Amino acid sequence: MSELELPGRLGDPNMTFIDDPRADPRIVAAAAMMEVAPGVESPGRDGDYEAALAYCSATEEAGAQAHPILLEMMPAFDDIESTKETIAGVDGNEITLYIDRPKNQEGALPAMLHTHGGGMVLMTAEDPMFIRWRKSVAQLGMVVVGVEFRNGGGKLGNHPFPAGLNDCASAAKWVSEHRADLGISHFIISGESGGGNLSIATTLKAHKEGWSDQIHGVYAMCPYISGVYRDPTPDLISLVENDTYMLSCDDMALLSLVYDPENKQASNPLAWPLQAQVEELAGLPPHIISVNELDPLRDEGLQFYRKLVAAGVPSTARTVHGTPHAGDLGFVDIAPEVTAQTLASVEQFAKSVG
């Protein structure tokens, strides 16, 4: 195979998602008309902590400009009942939980604890994309609990590791302890990107502390779990192949600095779950690792899946072809059947592990 036949930026260093022949043309058309963070200039992967914090806040604010449009486009979800609950975190802080359930619920239902994306450092559970995702899952006959954890930066920061992880663990314990009140039989934990990190890390934390049997499964989407974005390792080829495809190593390196300002957690699996040794994973509940073909993070998700299998954890991996990072969640009106397939996978998994 010649260099030009290699996929993505491995074959052509100037390749973009919009130019990549593997990309879903509907998502390409949408991506060509949008900016992820309009007007925000990245200081690059070597920016210091203060620059990284500023970039994080600016990115969050720029993304919020699209929220009114996304709220207007959202279905009514008239069949869903939504409530809020405030619980106490282990650090003495308050944590807001957003609970969605089918109206006229009969009997105990499976549940999903949702940890939203944003690199553990920006975005909120109240963002329209995550509201829509939770309500869409609830329509499948599930109770969904979204946790508003403390971020490393942005308007819910600045709270570096392990603040957000502690909040997700507190939420998981609360859901388990209130199964009767919630009307649920069991629950899985699921998130995308940084939320994929937190869903895995919460389960690892529970495993170390002896209560992972309370979590019945993990569905991690496009998990952001390696922590090596400043200096990618050769085994994670997608960090080169798909770099800048709506997500770049420069940006991820900055976000990782916001999460771990002193770079003391680089080898800590609770901060970066891919760093876990195989023996640390043995005994975990079943996992599904779902990745996007044209995502820089694709290979770290698949590598973690292989570690899970080696550890004897019941696990499955799936690749959503033609999509960029979290493309099956973020382009629901552009490629609805792609989103529908992922929703069906979440539903089947949640209902099978109880």
If you average the pLDDT, what whole number results? 96
Question: What percentage of residues falls in helices of 4 or more residues?
Answer: 25-40%
* Record field, number of beta strands: 8
What general outline do the C-alpha atoms trace?
A: globular
Strand portion: 15-25%
Uncertain segments: none
- Main sheet attributes: strand count, strand direction, barrel closure: 8 strands, mixed
Strand ordering within the main sheet: 1-2-4-3-5-6-7-8
Order of helices and strands: HHHHEEEHEHHEHEHHHEHEHH
User: Could you state the oligomeric state of the chains shown?
Assistant: single chain
Architecture overview:
The chain has an eight-stranded mixed sheet, sandwiched between helices. Helices cover 38% and strands 16% of the residues. It has helices at residues 8-11, 25-31, 49-64, 67-73, 128-138, 163-177, 179-182, 194-209, 238-241, 249-259, 278-281, 298-310, 327-330, 336-352; strands at 80-88, 94-102, 109-115, 143-148, 184-192, 218-221, 287-292, 315-320. With 354 residues, it is an alpha/beta fold.
